[in-house]
């Protein structure tokens, strides 16, 4: 993206966005003339004689069990249904409304039409109107209007060396059109249905207009085929209505969402939002080169397909929705209620930890059980090392924090603010670290398969970073040091464990990075000689799953330390007296058990629910995962539960994205 001076506003990359898109969904992203597309489609038709041109529809009539279409040249065609895919100014839609208003007054809202590949470069110039136009007030622009707009922007810089005027003077064709956008409430009436722009007009900023038409057509085919399998001899009025209603039911909310997303994207790129003049350039500078593809990829992966025909086998990193193990749960209430319960529980737990309060009533069997589970579970009770178990609980929290803060999709949210989080963790003390991490993860962590990856150098540095930054100082603080000054010094150093973990981890990752750079050869291909699909391996590393093994190893080590820590402490000491250095630096809250158990349980159960709601696991798997989490909590405490659920989640999400080979 370039600014008015022709300079780039964000980081640039030699990799074509089409390369990223093909790696993600298996297909490249291309611009193509509508005429070219029509030619390709026509060339592949088996019955070309059924394509009739110069047959603009002027009138539609419903007859007994059939529908008739009258054309401008006087021809009349009769069939089972009429599908209007004739654009935003749809004649079929106008006729459908006319018939609906005549035969079923009130069926259509009264105010929907009232004011209220070649060697080519495809380009767009967007210009805002002073006010929003609706319905019949939307203008049809002339060539004179286009020339006036061109004159106003003739000297605008596209790059430092190219102006808009130079681009326009070399055009093959151009047109000036209003960017209409709308989703009509009703798409069909009896045997008449509209699809594409005639039903849902999307701003071209997201490039989803034509895609949306094909998606609606696929749904229409699926619905009709389903009904025809039930009645091969022909469909009744009610069956037709059922099929056309199905298209609307499955497509309407998605169409509305796409229109809203395209509108938001258009507002951003045209800087039509509050304070745009001041914050647009700093905001855009934070975007990665593939930011636009990050927006488009999930839109494409939610699309439907025609059932019953074979799908081409194309490697792709991001799964399509119909490839997921289960159907995603998209109901707003079903998605929000668990989120509110989880964040509410964690918010109360964090408040209790910060204020040294008891979050429960202090009585009851459930309260006692949770308190014991939070203090190391059955393992902590058996070996009698509850304080050591509490310290071990922080290992998966620190590992998880460093992992989440390094994920590709978290680069612009607070989880990536490692230094800030280090200071917060140090200030709030060990009592509050676990609930704070759990709450932050639910609020900010990425849920996308493409945003899951971590830089392999960082992933391989997390285990040694946590061992050096937290485990080593903790072991030193557990030693029976008799000298009070030394003991105080060790306790003070231990208190800085969040910062130490971050420094060691990022330092080791930087060393690995320098070693990797020395071992790589500089590309001998100059920019002008690179192929159009050129991509340096470093940019495509995200599609290799190279980080999965070290990330699973991090979670596995965290789980092992939660299990082994209390046992080892029991073997070398029979009391908790050796915690004096740590206790002086940061005394543990007497209610840490119930706080940790409640926080870990809310975090883990929500993680299980989230995997199911996204369709990443089946319901049975989610239930078993939730039960297993509770079992691990009772056996070894909240730290082990968090490590276990994080390991499982890493495995589940990464397994949805198969490795793709580097070119």
TrEMBL record:
State whether keyword Membrane applies. yes
| Localization terms from the record | Membrane
One Pfam match, given by its short name, reads FAD_binding_3
Top-rank taxon of the source lineage equals: Eukaryota
Named cofactor requirement(s): FAD
Give the transmembrane region(s). 423-446, 458-481, 493-511, 553-572, 592-611, 623-645
Instruction: Spell out the molecular function terms from Gene Ontology.
Output: FAD binding; monooxygenase activity
Question: What GO CC terms are in its UniProt record?
Answer: membrane
Which stretches make up the FAD-binding domain?
A: 174-229
Matches recorded under SUPFAM superfamilies: FAD/NAD(P)-binding domain
Which keywords does UniProt give here?
Answer: FAD, Flavoprotein, Membrane, Monooxygenase, Oxidoreductase, Transmembrane, Transmembrane helix
Name the PANTHER family on file: FAD-BINDING DOMAIN-CONTAINING PROTEIN-RELATED (PTHR47356:SF2), FAD-DEPENDENT MONOOXYGENASE ASQG-RELATED (PTHR47356)
Which family does the record assign? Belongs to the paxM FAD-dependent monooxygenase family.
> Which protein, by its recorded name, is this?
FAD-binding domain-containing protein
Q: Cite the source lineage.
A: Eukaryota, Fungi, Dikarya, Ascomycota, Pezizomycotina
């Amino acid at each position: 993206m370039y600014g008015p001076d022709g300079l780039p506003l964000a980081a640039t990359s030699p990799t074509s966005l089409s390369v990223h898109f093909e790696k993600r969904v298996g297909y490249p992203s291309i611009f193509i003339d509508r005429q070219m597309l029509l030619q390709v489609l026509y060339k592949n038709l088996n019955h070309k004689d059924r394509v009739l041109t110069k047959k603009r529809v002027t009138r539609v009539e419903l007859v007994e069990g059939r529908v008739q279409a009258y054309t401008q040249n006087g021809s009349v065609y009769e069939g089972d249904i009429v599908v209007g895919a004739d654009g935003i100014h749809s004649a079929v839609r106008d006729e459908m409304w006319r018939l609906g208003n005549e035969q079923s007054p009130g069926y259509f809202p009264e105010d929907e039409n009232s004011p209220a590949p070649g060697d080519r470069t495809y380009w767009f110039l967007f210009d805002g109107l002073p006010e929003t136009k609706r319905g019949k007030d939307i203008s049809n622009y002339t060539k004179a209007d286009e020339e006036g707009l061109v004159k106003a922007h003739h000297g605008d810089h596209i790059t430092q060396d190219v102006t808009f005027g130079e681009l326009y003077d070399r055009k093959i064709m151009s047109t000036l059109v209003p960017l209409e956008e709308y989703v009509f409430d009703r798409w069909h009436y009896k045997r008449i249905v509209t699809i594409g722009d005639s039903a849902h007009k999307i701003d071209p900023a997201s490039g989803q207009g034509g895609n949306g038409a094909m998606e609606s057509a696929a749904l229409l085919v699926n619905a009709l085929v389903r009904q025809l399998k039930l009645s091969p001899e022909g469909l009744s009025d009610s069956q037709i209505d059922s099929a056309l209603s199905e298209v609307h039911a499955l497509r309407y909310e998605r169409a509305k969402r796409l229109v809203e997303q395209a509108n938001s994207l258009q507002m951003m790129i045209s800087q039509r939002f509050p304070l745009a003049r001041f914050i647009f350039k700093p905001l855009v500078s934070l975007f990665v080169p593939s930011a636009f593809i990050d927006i488009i990829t999930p839109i494409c992966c939610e699309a439907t397909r025609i059932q019953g025909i074979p799908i081409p086998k194309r490697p792709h990193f991001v799964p399509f929705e119909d490839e997921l193990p289960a159907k995603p749960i998209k109901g707003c209430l079903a998605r929000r209620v668990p989120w509110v319960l989880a964040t509410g529980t964690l918010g109360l737990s964090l408040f209790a930890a910060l204020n040294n309060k008891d979050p429960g009533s202090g009585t009851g069997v459930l309260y006692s059980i949770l308190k014991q589970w939070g203090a190391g579970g059955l393992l902590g009770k058996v070996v009698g090392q509850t304080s050591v178990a509490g310290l071990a609980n922080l290992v998966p929290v620190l590992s998880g924090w460093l992992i989440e803060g390094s994920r590709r999709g978290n680069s612009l949210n607070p989880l990536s603010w490692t230094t800030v989080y280090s200071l917060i963790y140090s200030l709030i003390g060990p009592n509050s670290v676990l609930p704070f991490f759990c709450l932050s993860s639910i609020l900010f962590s990425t849920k996308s398969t493409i945003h899951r990856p971590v830089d392999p150098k960082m992933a391989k540095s997390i285990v040694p970073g946590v061992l050096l930054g937290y485990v080593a100082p903790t072991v030193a603080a557990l030693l029976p040091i008799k000298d009070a000054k030394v003991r105080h010094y060790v306790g003070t150093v231990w208190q800085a464990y969040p910062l130490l973990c971050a420094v060691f981890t990022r330092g080791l990752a930087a060393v690995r990075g320098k070693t990797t750079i020395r071992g790589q050869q500089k590309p001998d291909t100059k920019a002008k000689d690179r192929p159009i699909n050129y991509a340096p391996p470093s940019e495509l590393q995200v599609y290799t799953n190279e980080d999965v093994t070290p990330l699973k190893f991090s979670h596995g080590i965290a789980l092992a330390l939660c299990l082994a820590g209390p046992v080892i402490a029991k073997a070398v000491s029979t009391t908790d007296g050796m915690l004096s250095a740590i206790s002086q630096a940061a005394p543990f809250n007497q209610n840490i058990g119930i706080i940790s158990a409640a926080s870990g349980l809310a975090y883990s159960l929500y993680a299980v629910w989230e995997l199911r709601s996204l369709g990443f696991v089946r319901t049975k798997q989610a239930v078993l995962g939730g039960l297993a989490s509770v079992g691990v909590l009772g056996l070894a405490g909240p730290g082990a539960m968090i490590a276990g659920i994080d390991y499982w989640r890493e495995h589940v999400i990464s397994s949805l994205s198969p490795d793709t080979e580097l070119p």
